[in-house]
Design brief:
Blueprint lengths: L8 E3 L14 E3 L6 E2 L2 H8 L8 H10 L23
Antiparallel strand pairs: 1-2, 2-3
C-alpha cells in the first residue's frame, strides 16, 4: 500500500486491485456498500496524498474509531518480579 493513495480505492468486483490512474471501474470500499467514485473525486482525493481529507475516508475513520466508555479504564498491576535473596 502506498501512503499517497487511498487504501480503499479499488476496482469494483476486484477489491484487491486498482489502477494507478483515475478509472470509471474504481469503487470506494470505505463506503458501505462500496460505491463508484467519480473521476474528479479520484483526482482530488483518492489518488493524492491528501486522501485523508476525503469526506468518505473521514466518515470511515469516525465509524471505525474506538468509542469511549463511561467507566474508567482498569489499571493493570504487574507484580514485582524481584527475588528476595535474604532467605
Amino acid at each position: 500500500m502506498s501512503g499517497t493513495v487511498c487504501p480503499f480505492l479499488a476496482i469494483a468486483g476486484e477489491p484487491a486491485r486498482r489502477s494507478s490512474l483515475p478509472d470509471h471501474a474504481h469503487a470506494c470500499f470505505a463506503a458501505k456498500p462500496a460505491t463508484p467514485v467519480e473521476i474528479a473525486q479520484q483526482e482530488r482525493y483518492c489518488l493524492d496524498p491528501g486522501f485523508t481529507g476525503c469526506p468518505i475516508f473521514v466518515a470511515w475513520a469516525a465509524r471505525e474509531a474506538a468509542q469511549p466508555i463511561d467507566a474508567p479504564s482498569t489499571r493493570v498491576v504487574v507484580p514485582d518480579a524481584r527475588v528476595d535473596d535474604s532467605v
